[in-house]
Amino acid sequence: AAMAAAAAFSLTEVLDAFRRCVTEQREVLLEPYLSGWRGLIRFLQSLGAVFSFISKDAVAKVSLLEGLCERQGFVSLQAMVREELLAGPAALRARPDSGCRTLLRLHRALRWLQLFLEGLRSGESGTSALCTDAYNASLAAYHPWVVRKAATLAFRALPPREAFLEVMNVGTPQEAVAVLGEAIPYISDVYGITQELFAQHKLLDLP
User: Glycolipid transfer protein domain: which residues (predicted)?
Assistant: First the structure.
């Protein structure tokens, strides 16, 4: 079953989605953003239970945002932020199901994935160390101690780099590294625009 799940994922779908994400006006389109996330979730799921504490949360957040986009007709991240801020910062902070808060959770996880994928591409250290470093530099700050402890333990059991490159389903390890090299700048760009937008509106610490 693991193999069947793995076959459903290809890194090119993540690349294509994030490539479509940013408009000429530097707006982040939510449809390709969520589509890129669905690909990243499949990538995490194809690696087994190790990442389930992140992928389960991401699945919930993605479907919440999809519902929101359908109901509210939000096309871009900027439009969603503008709309939700109309109620005032205090009202926004009080809403646990706001699009801003939900997207912020995905945004933090995207940073971890971006760092981890960069590490996989360069291959400078083992996957466990890479993943732990990426986690400590991103998501760890927002997780309670017990989750952090479980995560770092789980990362010790990660397969070697070849297994990750294979799961990407884009050919040889060299080809996987090349596609990573193409995909990462798009992911970084989306991350950077989101970070700037949230910082500008003081939304980076939404409870």
Answer: 29-169
